[in-house]
Amino acid sequence: MIGKKLPFTREQLDSILEKYPTPFHIYDEKGIRAYAQKLTAAYSWNKGFKEYYAIKACPNPYLMKILRSEGFGIDCSSLAELELAERVGLRGEEIMFTSNDTPVEDFQKAVKLGAIINLDDISHIPFLEQCAGIPELICFRYNPGSLKEGNVIIGNPEEAKYGFTREQLFDGYRMMKEKGVKRFGLHTMVASNELDPNYFIETAEILFDLIVELSQTLDISFEFVNLGGGIGIPYKPEQTPVDLDVMSKGIQKLYHELIIGNNLKPLKIYFESGRAITGPYGFLVTKVLHIKDTYKKYAGVDACMANLMRPALYGSYHHITVVGKGQQPHKNLYDVTGSLCENNDKFAVNRLLPEIEPGDIIVIHDTGAHGHAMGFNYNGKLRSAELLLRENGEVKEIRRAETLEDYFATLDFNGLGSFNV
Ligand SMILES: *Cc1c(COP(=O)(O)O)cnc(C)c1O
User: Fold this and answer.
1) Which residues, in sequence order, are CB contacts of 113 under 8 Å at separation 6+?
2) Terminal Cα-to-Cα distance of the chain (whole angstroms)
């Protein structure tokens, strides 16, 4: 194979294909666990370190159960995600609730579950108090504005709808202190798919500085700092993953200088990464239906942007392997397309690939985050199954494919007869 590896052999894939029709996403448990362990090990210097998996990246309860067994919590931002957390058996401070523009029911559910509430705005303080009461532990989301440059996906912090300004943080924590809150956390999330470890080290510095100032000014102490998500992954074969040890060592050094150096209480480091945890360990497997040769060459597959929206949405690169042809010359230029009546329904544009024929199996890499999760039903396209490749090589279906019955379930066709027109 050129560029990127697959977690299964050709024979394994053939036997999976005998049982499960394409398209499907398949997740590699071994890869997910190995990365989870690597992340945890990198922060072993920090007592209480925890990663809260941003469940929106791949909201499957089986994956969450695996991640919980690696010591991870869950980061939720909606009622459905809280409900999923509850059904997996997560409770209390295993759940971080980082929402925005939050509905009443969501706050009520989060408080009921004992989740850590991470407020997005100062106006949410009275709102939360009225609808669910003030919990004993509270966290605010900071938007550093012009202090921090954003990146492509998340945009410039000053343009972002999220978080408190610096001044609002001082006012907000003071209000909470007056309401009797004694346990505090601080959060920010300013990056998305960032590959430079220094970006996270700089973010930690901004937050540590702020914690020192808030603690000293308001005479409160912080239990944790949540550095958010946004750890990038190497979608392109020539890219390299974020060096977790470099990142951790940089943060550890600042921790010593700023937190210990200012005699603050021990501070737990939290992350709420999604993409890095499962992204590289998911694969969309699809079959070539048609080869079309007009002004360009098109390889039409049986998956479409309803299964993986990132290329159409952000022009993102996802690596493609034509199974069994990895050693052949990649000299043919293709657009790899789905069947939606949308011209941006393309997994790749002008991609050099081996010669493709109908019936070939194509694997699209790095679909384990924001892949199946972003699925939708436009054009009546049905969301695919999700499979899990277990560490022992067995395959388990962890979500069945949608059926036409699922698609029509919200319509009452029986009512058509008595509907007079
Ligand atoms: C999406 C999101 C995350 C996870 O981001 P990744 O890029 O998947 O790591 C974490 N926190 C919040 C608040 C988010 O919205």
Assistant:
1) 82, 85, 86, 91, 92, 95
2) 59
Cα(298) to centroid of ligand 1, in Å? 34
Chain-centroid distance of CA 2 in Å reads 27
SS3 category, 49: coil
pLDDT band at 93, cuts 50/70/90?
very high
> Tokens 């159409």 correspond to what residue?
312
Q: DSSP character for 281?
A: G
Please give the Cα distance from 189 to 160 (Å, whole number): 10
Q: How far, in Å, from the CA of 251 to the mean position of ligand 1?
A: 20
Joined tokens for residue 242? 């974020």
d(CA 329, CA 52): 43
d(CA 211, CA 372): 38
**pTM listed for this prediction:** 0.96
CB atoms within 10 A of CB 49: 18
**For ligand 1, is residue 23 a contact (CB within 6 Å)?**
no
Judge contact between 363 and 287, C-beta under 8 A: no
Tell me, in angstroms, the distance from the centre of ligand 1 to residue 193's CA.
Answer: 9
| Residue 239 region by backbone torsions, left for phi larger than 0, else alpha for psi between -120 and 50, else beta | beta
**What number of CA atoms fall less than 13 Å from residue 151's CA on the CB side?**
14
Note if 58 is an active site residue.
Answer: no
- Determine the Cα angle at 230 with ends 226 and 233, to 5°: 140
Tens digits of residue pLDDT in 107-145: 999 999 999 999 999 999 999 999 999 999 999 999 998
Residue showing tokens 């931002």: 77
| Short-list 236, 325, 336, CA closest to 23 | 336
Please give the structure tokens belonging to residue 27. Answer: 């997740």
Could you tell me if the CB of 54 is within 6 A of ligand 1? yes
